[in-house]
């Protein structure tokens, strides 16, 4: 491959291709070379980034809380055990509220 490139360089074909494709001004570049406007970045410019970051962190926190609750209360337990635990808690809470003295 390098031999073929060397042959193109010797023939002058490579130089012609460079001038044809690389030296011409692009139609995408504007001819107006005025001073570019300065757009300073401020806090308002980053609002989308901050919003995306906040939503991602909130979702990660929610997933973590659900995972921890699942591990603590429901992992490896049958539905009946979960129901018993919930009923036992509600029964204990109702007894505690009955014992509170009224003034």
Task: Describe, in short, the structure shown.
The chain has 103 residues and is mainly α. Helices cover 67% and strands 0% of the residues.
Report on the architecture of this protein:
This protein has four helices and no strands. It has 103 residues and is mainly alpha-helical. The chain is elongated and about 100 Å long. The N and C termini lie far apart (99 Å).
What class, by secondary structure content? mainly alpha
Count the DSSP helices.
4
Let me know the average pLDDT: 79
Low-pLDDT sequence parts: none
Major sheet details: none
Q: How do the SSEs run, as a string of H and E?
A: HHHH
Helix coverage percent: 55-70%
What's the assembly state of these chains? single chain
Care to count the β-strands?
0
Instruction: From the alpha carbons, calculate the radius of gyration and give it in angstroms.
Output: 36 Å
Q: How big a fraction of the residues is strand? A: under 5%
The rounded distance between the terminal residues' Cα atoms is 99 Å
The rough form would be described as elongated
Question: What features would you highlight for this structure?
Answer:
103 residues; mainly alpha; 67% helix; elongated
